[in-house]
Design a protein that fits this description.
The complex is a heterodimer of chains A (834) and B (451). Chain A is an alpha+beta fold and 834 residues long. Chain A is built from 30 helices and 16 strands. In chain A, the strands form six sheets. In chain A, strands 2-9-4-7 form a four-stranded antiparallel beta sheet, with no helix packed on it. In chain A, strands 3-8-5-6 form a four-stranded antiparallel beta sheet, with no helix packed on it. In chain B, strands 3-8-1-13-14-2-15 form a seven-stranded mixed beta sheet, with helices on both faces. In chain B, strands 4-5 form a two-stranded antiparallel sheet. Chain B is globular, with a radius of gyration of 23 Å. Chain B has 451 residues and is α/β, with parallel strands linked by helices. The chains are: A alpha+beta (834), B alpha/beta (451).
Chain lengths: 834, 451
């Protein structure tokens, strides 16, 4: 008999009353909530130490645990390593066992436990247990908030690029300069895994050297060749981008940064067959080169008629030799394009579809359409210092009229640059240190060179590369404090923009106003409305939904002859535009699952079977039926959750559980053989049949019974997201499934309704993912109360994006930090290493 | 002279990414007054594979006689100056170049993909490629801890891995010979600028003045940064402290590299400007790539390299040597004398570039000899007669002294169908990273290392 523990749960319920009314927990109760064992029974709240068990109401949490959980999770069986006996686990003492109870709560809330087949609580009992555990945990958190402490963040590659854009006005292709970052908890902005090696520092120095030169427009910058390739598996039969002229076909349009005013040479290379013969040269073609949409040169290439037979081979090898134009360009970023003028075509004879681009047949085909392989931009030649490039305008906030003005102007430039780069006010001594470097550079090559040295120095400084939030001098381990307004500004801008704060945000922070709720709120709204919030889509959604994997995904070209880079590009664009509209129009996040519209161009519409859409530009369309409603009908997601050669209900089911429902299945046990693929000659079995075979093994079934049905629901979509009614094995698609709780569905539309019945789990998952991304660290059990607080305040606002985001910004872990004791740091370091 | 005797740990010097120009002058590491013969030190050994695509005009390759009295053939003529360190090897076969079962054509892709692995590759145009680990990567893995780059993979032609480059085979098979794992073919870099950046970081040129100027600037910047880090460390939380300490370690490492670079900026290196990009002609491109290989060896950035003078099925035309036709169709010569002559011209042209590299290797001092003395450079192809795609009697020649371990000046003919992987066993052995088995190998070759 453990009477005191039972007093605990009663206390927790008292506590949640206080928490619910937003009052601080009275210290006496908080202390009692933490009481353990037989010590100091607080008789004013606890029932006297008599036979407690008999006094528990049948629906008390303890009674429910006893009734449904402990038959497996007891000290003897220790199923899944979890012991919920009253001796071991104290439902009332959540403050010290938060991790355990958050785990239990998650299983109970999602009704993932007890497993199907065993005795399960009624809906009311589930609700009781969920509510009481939540309240107890939230109350404990309110009494002892733990905001955690993210480690100093190194900027990741995406953040670095955007910070450079906003700081220097230079658009850079950082992919070629910096290595990709490791990721943790599904995101590559997690501080713990963002390390610095000597190799990386060298890369930063290399990048800084280059960026410094480009930013000031250093005319001694060496000649460089930049090559831009058209994706090799893109059919160049249509207009390739909205940045290209309407009557164009093929080619590409790229954003290129010209480092200085000067002359540049653009050379076009045409696509060749594997025998190095240029494709499609039989007839003449007009090829245009444009810079910022202005025609720079029109070439004629091709046309074999009239050439002596002896010259033909040479011509087919070298027809693009002279596709070269030299032009003057101003420093800064420009849109550079090359394309063919679209030739009118007359249908003639029987239409023979071209072979797939990835096939060997195509790689040898000379009579396919002429196509651009790549453009090369070489320069600068005769470079001169630009008068007013965008980057110079950003950096040179003054120009010394005479040598005597140089020191004061340098000080202004350097302080402005350092403040923006470091995202905080800069001390005079810091500026002095930078000016010493300026002097060295100036001595070697004049005023601009001095500034260039400072830029290089600033770009490798820890103050720029790391987001460091200084701890207040009086900070005590274990005691949370509110982070400064300046630190908050950076948290906000890296969360919403993946970049540095702008002057308005930083200004408010420096004046100590940012934390004021109305100002903070207005800033969040302003930032979300700004174009820079597109970073949320590429960086947050791109990783959350696995969209980034689309780039490297390669469906089997023999089975999916339709798949090419145009379709890949269209998938990507569709989902980006869809997410953008969801965010900008501030939809409920639940609309991600049920929106009845999407964005398509002709290529994608044909893929989806939507009639009447012509041209390469994307437009919003209302879907004709509910098969493809929401994200789950989009080719991008259906493709990245498939194998190269077939769909995988397991992969799709796992993706759904992990990313939409927040209930990731554990990794498979060791020694599980992979699903047998169909043997040639054998009786083809459908994936479903093979999976059913697989689920006969009870070890497999424990997880696959949850995963597979979710994936089956999407079986009408093939491995590149096309609608189908017959599967790979030639059998009619069976898209029905039964969830562990007995819910049945058939097809994606019915399944969507089932998912929407679990909308709360979906919103919780989005919130958890978004909070992970916002904090740049994995969520811990002590963050769950914050997640619930965000959800509570977003609910009345229909779970809109803005209410979730504002909830995150106002949450305990986002606005606070806590120094950790030394021992905890060491333990964490070990954990990360393992 | 590079010495492995641990009087001073080389690792302390090598840890940076760009400990580039600092390294060869390591005499200081040998304790003074110790006779070389009495130290445990051994010369560094290096290995390079140079691959030429689309087979060989075999009648013009194979020397007439066996043994030490052989005469150089027309293609091999350019190796005459290196006779003492040249071993021509005939008779070896790349078994998995041949179609297995009903695989059919695709010999070019198979030849490249199996050449250094001796492992059958899966016939697929998709992403589900499957091969074996190549012998250079076995060496690279073993030597990785000694140099900054485990290996360097270079090529003249594109690095594309998408699409199909040979009947039924993904481009990944035809475009590289280096495989880190059975599913990870290594892309070969064909842009000299990218190679240069990998080797030398932020320098504009290997010219002494440019290196010194750069080193001075970097040192000033890093000095200024380390001052700041020290100041910062005073008021950081525990976790931040650990991160910033890591950053400071990196700064220290780079500083050490710069310090070395400064000390040695007077040291003569072949002056190579940071290349702008890919040169227009084959010869310029090939020579620039070879120069970069030389620099990589000379600075001990890596000891293992592979270089493809063309990808398999290369269709490059060589109008500059009177072959305006594309290489691959010419290689299917059907014994047409005109085509045979053209193929031979390409073969000679490729080998000349290799000889140009050998000359520079020989002219570069390294310890008690030259770079060539301490290297093993294999030149060859996974196809012999290209007309009908033969994978036996491969054209192979091994040049370099491997630090006195290989006796040159011979033409050795092995029994038909001896696996080429047997030769690789010998090579890895000489490199000091013996392997028991590589793909289909059956045991080391005899005679090769008789001294």
């Amino acid at each position: 008999v453990r009477p005191i523990r039972w007093s605990g749960i009663a206390l927790a319920l008292v506590a949640c009353f206080f928490a619910g009314t937003e009052m601080a927990l009275p210290p006496r109760i908080a202390a009692a909530t933490q009481a353990t064992g037989h010590s100091t029974p607080d008789t004013s709240h606890a029932t006297p130490a008599t036979d407690q068990k008999s006094q528990q109401p049948a629906d008390s949490p303890r009674a429910l645990l006893d009734k449904y959980c402990v038959s497996c999770h007891n000290a003897r069986l220790k199923t899944a390593g979890l012991v919920l006996d009253r001796d071991a686990a104290d439902a009332g003492n959540v403050a010290t066992q938060g991790e355990l109870w958050e785990k239990v709560l998650r299983k109970v809330r999602t009704q993932a436990m007890p497993p199907a087949g065993s005795r399960r609580p009624s809906a009311a009992e589930y609700a009781t247990l969920t509510t009481s555990l939540e309240h107890a945990l939230d109350a404990a958190a309110a009494a002892h908030p733990n905001p955690g402490r993210p480690t100093a963040h190194r900027l990741n590659r995406a953040e670095y690029a955007l910070a450079i854009r906003d700081l220097l006005g230079v658009d850079v292709d950082v992919r070629s300069m910096l290595p990709a970052d490791d990721s943790g908890y599904g995101f590559d902005n997690v501080a713990d895994v963002l390390s610095v090696s000597p190799g990386l520092l060298e890369r930063y120095m290399l990048a800084a050297g280059h960026l410094g030169r480009v930013a000031v427009g250093d005319p001694t910058i060496p000649v460089a060749i930049a090559t831009y390739r058209v994706p090799p598996l893109a059919a160049q039969t249509e207009r390739m981008s909205e940045d290209l002229p309407f009557a164009s076909r093929g080619g590409l349009s790229v954003r290129h940064t010209f480092p200085v005013d000067g002359e540049y040479v653009l050379k076009v290379r045409l696509q060749r067959t594997y025998t190095e013969l240029i494709r499609g040269m039989t007839d003449p073609h007009q090829l245009e080169v444009r810079v910022n949409r202005r025609l720079v040169k029109q070439f004629e290439v091709g046309g074999l008629a009239g050439r002596p037979a002896g010259d033909l081979l040479k011509y087919l090898q070298s027809a693009d030799e002279d596709l070269e134009v030299r032009f003057a360009a101003k420093a800064g970023s420009a849109l550079v394009a090359a394309d063919f003028v679209k030739e009118p075509k007359l249908a003639e004879g029987i239409y023979v579809p071209p072979p797939p681009l990835a096939s060997f047949e195509f790689s040898g085909k000379t009579d396919s359409e002429a196509a651009i392989d790549s453009i090369q931009i070489t320069g600068p030649y005769n470079g001169t210092r630009p008068e007013a490039s965008p980057s110079r305008q950003k950096i040179f906030v003054c120009q010394p009229a005479a040598q005597a003005d140089e020191p004061s102007c340098a000080r202004r430039i350097v302080s402005t640059l350092a403040r923006r780069a470091y995202r905080r006010p800069v001390k005079p001594e810091e500026v002095d240190a930078l000016l010493r470097l300026y002097e060295q550079g100036r001595a070697g090559g004049g005023f601009d060179n001095g500034i260039e040295w400072v830029i290089e120095r600033v770009l490798v400084a820890p103050d720029f590369l790391f987001r460091i939030e200084p701890e207040p001098a009086n900070a005590q381990p274990g005691t949370p404090y509110r982070i400064s307004d300046v630190a908050l500004a950076s948290r906000l801008s890296f969360f919403l923009w993946s970049s540095i704060p702008d002057d308005e945000l930083l200004g408010l922070a420096e004046r100590g106003r940012l934390h004021e709720p109305s100002i903070l709120d207005a800033q969040v709204r302003r930032m979300l409305a700004d174009d820079r919030s597109g970073a949320l889509i590429t960086n947050f959604a791109g990783q959350w939904l696995y969209l980034r994997n689309l780039r490297g995904h390669a469906p089997d070209p023999d089975l999916f002859v339709d798949f090419d880079d145009n379709l890949r590009e269209a998938f990507q664009r569709e989902t980006e535009l869809f997410l953008q509209s969801q965010l900008r129009e501030d939809h409920s996040v639940i609309d991600l699952l049920r929106a009845n519209y999407t964005f398509v161009n002709e290529r994608l519409a044909r893929h989806y079977g939507i009639p009447g859409i012509y041209g390469s530009h994307f437009r919003r369309v209302v879907l004709p039926d509910d098969r493809r409603a929401g994200l789950l009908g989009q080719g991008s997601i259906l493709t990245v959750t498939s194998y190269a050669h077939r769909t995988s209900p397991v992969v799709r089911g796992k993706w759904l559980l992990e990313n939409l429902l927040g209930a990731p299945p554990p990794p498979p046990p060791a020694n599980v053989p992979a699903l047998k693929e169909n043997n040639e000659g054998g009786r083809p079995a459908s994936v479903r049949e093979r999976l059913e075979e697989h689920r006969k093994n009870p070890v497999c079934a424990s997880c696959h019974a949850r995963m597979d049905p979710l994936g089956f629901a999407l079986e009408n979509f093939d491995a590149i997201g096309r609608w189908r009614s017959v599967d790979e094995s030639g059998k009619p698609v069976d898209a029905s499934g039964v969830l562990p709780d007995g819910t049945r569905f058939d097809g994606p539309a019915e399944f969507r309704r089932v998912l929407l019945a679990h909308a709360d789990e979906f919103v919780t998952t989005v919130t958890e993912k978004l909070l992970t991304y916002a904090l740049g660290r994995g969520l811990e059990s002590y963050d769950m109360p914050a997640v619930r607080a965000i959800l509570r305040q977003a609910k009345p606002d229909e779970d809109r994006w803005s209410s979730l985001i504002r909830g995150i910004v106002a949450s305990v872990p986002f606005e606070n930090a806590m120094p950790v004791p030394r021992a905890a740091v060491a333990a964490d370091a070990r954990r990360v290493q393992e | 002279m590079i010495i492995t005797k641990k009087a001073l740990s080389r690792r302390t010097l090598l840890r940076g990414f760009g400990a580039t120009l600092a390294l060869p002058l390591l005499d200081a590491m040998v304790p003074a007054l110790t006779a070389l013969s009495s130290t445990a030190a051994r010369a560094i050994r290096r290995m390079g594979i140079v691959y030429t695509p689309n087979g060989m005009m075999m009648p013009n390759w194979t020397p007439k006689d066996e043994g030490a009295s052989f005469e150089f053939s027309p293609i091999l003529e350019a190796l005459q100056p290196f006779r003492d360190q040249t071993t021509i090897i005939s008779g070896l076969a790349d078994k998995y170049g041949w179609p297995q079962g009903d695989e059919g054509t695709g010999d070019h892709a198979r030849a490249a993909a199996t050449f250094l692995t001796g492992v059958h590759v899966k016939k697929t145009e998709g992403a589900d490629i499957q091969g074996g680990v190549s012998m250079d990567q076995i060496a690279a893995r073993a030597l990785a801890s000694d140099t900054q780059l485990a290996s360097l993979e270079l090529a003249i032609e594109s690095v594309e891995f998408l699409g199909a480059c040979d009947s039924g085979y993904s481009c990944a098979y035809a475009n590289t010979i280096a495989w880190r794992s059975p599913t990870t073919p290594l892309p070969m870099e064909n842009d000299p600028r990218a190679v240069f950046d990998r080797l030398f970081g932020a320098t504009d040129s290997t010219d002494a003045g440019a290196r010194r100027a750069r080193a001075i600037k970097e040192r000033s910047i890093l000095d200024s940064v380390s001052d700041r880090v020290r100041e910062l460390q005073g008021n950081l939380g525990q976790r931040d402290h650990a991160k910033i300490a890591e950053y400071l370690d990196a700064v220290r490492d780079v500083e050490r590299r710069i310090q070395k670079a400064e000390q040695q900026s007077a040291r003569e290196l072949p002056s190579v400007e940071r290349p702008a990009g890919v040169p227009p002609t084959f010869e310029e491109h090939a020579r620039l790539m070879f120069d970069l290989l030389l620099l990589a060896y000379q600075t001990d950035m890596t000891r293992v390299t592979t270089f493809m003078l063309g990808r398999e099925v290369s269709g490059r035309a060589y109008p500059e040597i009177g072959v305006p036709d594309s290489h691959h169709p010419v290689s299917h010569h059907q014994n047409d004398p005109e085509k045979l002559a053209k193929l031979a011209k390409i073969n000679v042209f490729h080998l000349k570039q290799f000889a140009f590299f050998l000359e520079k290797m020989r002219a570069t001092p390294d310890g008690d000899g030259t770079l060539l003395d301490h290297s093993m450079l294999l030149y060859g192809s996974g196809i012999s007669d290209s007309n009908i795609h033969m994978h036996d009697n491969l054209p192979l020649v091994l040049v370099g002294g491997a630090a006195g371990q290989i006796k040159g000046g011979r033409h050795i003919v092995y029994p038909k169908d001896t696996p080429v992987t047997n030769l690789f066993l010998n090579m890895l052995d000489k490199l000091g990273v013996p392997a028991e088995q590589i793909g289909d190998s059956t045991g080391k070759l005899p005679f090769l290392t008789d001294l």
